[in-house]
Sigma-B regulation protein RsbU (Phosphoserine phosphatase) (Asanoa ferruginea), 390 residues
Amino acid sequence: MNDAVEHDLDELYDHAPCGNLSTLLDGTIAKVNSTLLGWLGYSRDELVGRRRFSDLLTVGGKIYHETHFAPLLQMQGEVNGIALDLKAADGTRLPVLVTSTVKTGSDGQPLLIRTTVFDARARRAYEQELLRARQVAERERERLRLLVAGLQRSLLPASLPTPPGMQAAAHYHMASPDEVGGDFYDLFPLDGGRWGFFLGDVRGKGIDAAAVTAAARYTLRAAAVYDATPTAVLANLNAVLFQDYGSEGHRHCTVTFGVLTPTPSGYAVTIAGGGHPAPLLARADGTVDYQPTLGGTLIGILATPRLVARSFALAAGDTLILYSDGLTEARTDPAGGRYGSEALRSFVANVAPTTADAVVAELTGLVGRLAGDLDDDVAMMALGVTAPGS
């Protein structure tokens, strides 16, 4: 009976579903089962006493065996699940997972190395399929990013014109490269030396938001040609959005629209707000304050919105800063704290007096530092009257 059991064990070893081999401490193959021989296409006589385990490895596998596998086996007495490629008799590669254990004698001295080899061809094929799928997904995502970036650029002016005696600068930061945002801005000439400007934010993201953004931008410019009074311009925009988009998921926007009128000392500014964050005014003397249009309602929500306007002077060295709420609503702590309007005012106060170019550069740096905590796109535009000698 013992002979039968021993025969069964030998049969199990030789025809196991995995490869088995034993090597001397120098790697010389002392025993190998039929399973591994069949995988590699060798006869027993070609391997036993003639080849070392490392001879079965590819060039890269030999390097890894010498620098990692063998030293780790010597130190720990075993290594588990190492991915290698074996070289078959016909030169083809067989991806495998290798586990080796050092067998010691009763005195604790190492005698030989027992190695189990698992066929990893199915696993390798699966990994390669996953890699190909990932590469396809990455290419598609990059294509989407390019499309989104192109569409986003089409919704913004390529560059801002420069009103006489002024400096103008803007920046747009996309919170996600995969979605078109709804922030928009523009600066454009009107009759009589006046200039119109606006900055707004459409609710939501994606193609629907982009459609509203395009409609808002072109409606504001067209409306200002006929009547540039800021409240009238916003009323016209509200009529368009309420009629065309009001019933489609309540598409609406916030916006600040203003008119610059030249004066001997700079420009007179009149702005109207439709639910948009109040712009900041950085004076030449270093003071910084908000210019709120309190009570202005969101654009596109009501058939007859409440619109509020205010006027102020923009003198030499003064800079007006408009922005979207993606900046002030940036998360600043895990508990849900937001950056906030006071922090923004303090930030601008620390760099005031300033110019349009300088403050946009500073705010762009701030947005970069907050980028990981931004849930929404950020648009900003600064308009400054050039100081004497600038």
In short: The chain has a mean pLDDT of 86.
